[in-house]
Structures are given as structure tokens and as C-alpha cells.
Amino acid sequence: MGLSSEAPELPVDLVTEQILTRLPGKSLMRFKCVSRHWLSVISSKHFTDRFLTVRPSPRLFMCLWDPNDDNRNRYWVTLSLAPSSTSSSSTTTPSSFVVDQDLTIPGMGGYNLQNFRGFMCYSNGSIALIYNPATAELVTLPFFRSCIRGKKVASYYFGHDPVNDQYKVVSLVSARKQFRGLVTVTSENWVFDLKTGKGCCSWKKAALTPPDFSHQQIGLGGGVCIDGVIYYLAWTPYKKVVVSFDIRSEEFNMIPVPYDENVRNMALLEHGGKVTLFDQTNLKDMGVVALWTLEEARSKKWSCKSRVLESSQMHLVNSIAFKIRGTTQKGKVLLKPEEFLSPFHILCYDIQSNDMSKIEMEGIPNSWFSLDKGPAFDLVFMDQSESVMEWETLIHGEMIDAAAPSTGSKDQL
Questions:
Q1: SS (H, E, C) the chain
Q2: Hey, what domains does the chain have and what are their CATH numbers?
Q3: Whole-model pTM?
Q4: Which terminal residue of the chain, N or C, has fewer Cβ atoms less than 10 Å from its own Cβ?
Q5: Exposed / middle / buried, residue 214 (Cβ in 10 Å: 0-12, 13-18, 19+)
Q6: Could you tell me which residues come within 8 angstroms of residue 288 by beta carbon, excluding any fewer than 6 positions away?
Q7: Which residues fall within 8 angstroms of residue 387, CB to CB, at 6 or more apart?
Q8: Other residues' Cβ atoms within 10 Å of the Cβ of residue 262
């Protein structure tokens, strides 16, 4: 019996899951132009969901802006940094990153960067933006006007509910007023659903809040999303709290933070699939960090454990003040210096092994180090997932606003 001259056709599932998922997101965006079939496969929900489970190469994004420029159109840039060729194996956190000039984005930037499911959410002035590095799509969320009076500050928190496949953004708008030396704070929470489609996409004021929910909040850093619930750390009169927002039910709750008057430097992060407060108040002087883990949200039960840094690593922390900037996929904590110093580096702390290491940043333009006041900056580490989902898919075929970012104005609130 002779052999057929025709090669067997590869099953579609083999092509999509065994071949395409091994390619980087940028390549997949180019391959959409190959044929209608490839476009259909790569754009399908099945493929985009499957691609989210593939761990990408780690990448770091750093936003820089010049605070010396008093104009609204400040000079912004987002640097994209990839592991250097001399860095350690990809199975560990790279020891150095280098600026990728091809992926650096002039004119785009912000602060309070958050990374979730391949998207980067950040603030620019009083507005929120969401950026997908794989598709290079940048979306500016619509403005909304808060009713509270005073000098307003807006914070934004991004998350996803895996049950209903919903993406939502929570905003905390806070305003301070001072009268005869007395300072008062008023706040509002707003919710934006990314899946309601164009024409319906708008902010709505939060409705489901319990009786003990404080409307005198000030946001303290970024948030995290765990199992369909967004969490963020906030200050209320006389105490700090963790605010939770259930994406499905849109219900808010407050969880008191264990009180300690000596705690001055605390940040919220995810560790081991749980909400964790990383207290580095005594890191610089004593090499001690305290980890408060929320064991049960409903009962508001916390547990605490401490770590003491090895004396041989104290030189990494005893001369520079750092801020927490999230965790890697393996649960390592990232710390950025509060000041922009040359040569620039961040720290990576492995909670399990109690090991602190330095990650060097190479290729940052020297002009940023020569500014009179030094640049303002923020950064986010992305290694958990990469998304090839386009906004048409995310919000049922309709774009929100793919305009370039604006520094915005607090009057828009």
C-alpha cells in the first residue's frame, strides 16, 4: 500500500495550545495578519484564556516623569526592561534588567502601577488608564465627577472575577478640608465595569456598604485581587483598615488592621494566595520584617510572623529607604528605593528562604539622573501572565477610548 502524498493536517487544538502558546504575545499579534483562520484562533476566548496560564519571560516597567516641569504636559516615559543576557537562569528572579529601547514608550507614564492578568493599571493625574504590553493597547477610562468638596485625590484598584469573567476597577476619591486648624476627610467609592459595552461604560457610585463602613478613607498604596476580591490598604480616623470589594456582588467591607503605634511603614501584598501586610518599619535599622496574614476575611482573623535578615545582607538595606512594589509569581517581595539614585537598583526579598538580593537596572538614560530634583518614578514587575486579549473581546466588541494618556486635572473629579 503506497504512502499518501498529502501531509496529515495538524489538529487545531494542537496548533493553538502546543505551538502558538509557546510564542510571545508580540509575535502572536503579528501572526493575526497571516490569515482569517489565524486571526480567529488567536482572538478566540479559548485561546486567550489558555495563553493566560503560560508563564511569560519576566519584564519590568518603569514610569518616569519630570516634577520640575510645572506645565500640565510633563515629560513622561515608560521604560520596558528585560532580563540582561548576563543575568541568572530564567528559573529564578533575574539579577539584572536592561532597558529594551524597542519597547520603551515616550509620552506614557503614571504611578500606582498594578499588574494583573497581563494588564497594567495606573493613575495619571486624576484619571485611570489600563495598558496591555502584549497588544500595545492603551485605554483611558471615562472621567467622572465626585460630589465631595475639597482638594481631591483619586486611587484606582483593578481586578477580575474568574466565575463570571468580569473585570472591574474600583476608585477611592478622598478630599481633605481644613477649618480653624481642624482637618476632616471625606471619601467616596466608585465602580467601573469593563464588560458593559460602549455607551453603557460609566462609573457608578458604590451602593453596597455595611453600616460600619467608613467614608473617611485615604488610600495607602496599591491593591491586590485574590479570588475575585479586590483589597486595598486605607487610613481612616485613628486606624488603618483593609478594604475589600467583592467583584461579583459589588459589596464593600472593612477589616481592621492589627494596631501597633510603632508601625510606620506597612504595605499590602499577596503572599501564598492570602492578603498580607508587609511591615518594614524595623528593616533599615534592625533587619526585621513582620508579616501579618489575613487568615480569614469573614472573621477578620490575622496571624503574624517575623523574619530577621542575615547580618551579611544588612548592607543592602541600612543606608537607603525602600518602598514595597508587589511580589513576583514565586512570592518574592520587590522593594524600590524612595530616591532615584545611580546606579539604580531594586531589592528582591524571598520570604521563604529569608534571602535579600539586588536587581540592577541597566540602560536608564543618564539625563534622568541629572535633573535638579530628580525624577518621580514608579515601577511594576510583570511575570505572572501575558494577555493577548484585545479590548473588543474584553468589552464585547466595543472600544472605550484608545486615546493617548493625558495628565488630567483633579477638577475632573
A1: CCCCCCCCCCCHHHHHHHHHHHCCHHHHHHHCCCCHHHHHHHHCHHHHHHHHCCCCCCEEEEEEECCCCCCCCCCEEEEEEEECCCCCCCCCCCCEEEECHHHCEECCCCEEEEEECCEEEEEECCEEEEEECCCCEEEECCCCCCCCCCEEEEEEEEEEECCCCEEEEEEEEEEEEEECCEEEEEEEEEEEECCCCCCCCCEEECCECCCCCCCCCEEEEEEEEECCEEEEEEEECCEEEEEEEECCCCEEEEEECCCCCCCCCEEEEEECCEEEEEECCCHHHHCEEEEEEEEECCCCEEEEEEEECCHHHHHHCCCCCEEEEEECCCCCEEEEECCCCCCCEEEEEECCCCEEEEEEEECCCHHHHHCCCCCEEEEEEECCCCCCCCHHHHCCCCCCCCCCCCCCCHHHC
A2: 9-54 (no CATH), 55-405 (2.120.10.80)
A3: 0.85
A4: N
A5: middle
A6: 282, 306, 307, 308, 309
A7: 25, 48, 51, 52, 117, 118, 119, 132, 134, 135
A8: 7
Q: Which of 334, 327, 282 is nearest to 308 (CA)?
A: 282
**Closest listed residue to residue 59, CA positions, set 19, 104, 8:** 104
Q: Look up residue 161 and give its three cell numbers.
A: 472575577
From first to last of its 413 residues, what are the pLDDT tens digits of the chain? 455 556 566 565 565 567 787 888 778 888 888 888 778 888 777 788 888 777 777 888 999 888 776 555 557 888 888 888 766 544 467 889 999 887 788 878 788 888 888 888 988 878 899 988 888 888 888 888 888 888 888 999 999 999 988 899 999 999 988 777 777 888 999 999 987 544 456 789 988 788 888 888 989 888 999 999 999 999 888 789 999 999 999 999 999 998 766 667 889 999 989 999 999 989 999 999 999 999 988 889 999 999 999 999 999 998 888 999 988 888 899 999 999 988 999 999 999 999 999 999 999 988 888 887 778 899 888 877 778 777 666 665 333 333 333 344 444 56
Report the percentage of the chain scoring pLDDT > 90. 30
